Amino acid sequence: MKNPENYSCRVQVLNEPAFSRMGSVFPDVFDCDFDYGSVWYEHYGGSLLRKDNVKMRVFLLAEKHTIEQDIYLNVELDRSQCSLIRQGLIEIIIKIN
Question: Quick check: 96 pLDDT over 70?
Fold first, then answer.
């Protein structure tokens, strides 16, 4: 995310059941300039839904004001690595619109 130099930027995951139904993003709050691997999506294991939509809120914090913007992370589960007898990690494809 682009961040003006005079702002502090944070993201909060809004765990609302109407949006995120098959997983969630962790941690619940993180900096916009997070390191690779420090923020992840965790799938809950349900097999009925292939797509998820995680609602998040971006905060740009300045000295005298705060700007808030809601964003949605669209998650699509790649079932090509799923099996009835094999358990393990399932690759997900994340597309940000």
Answer: no
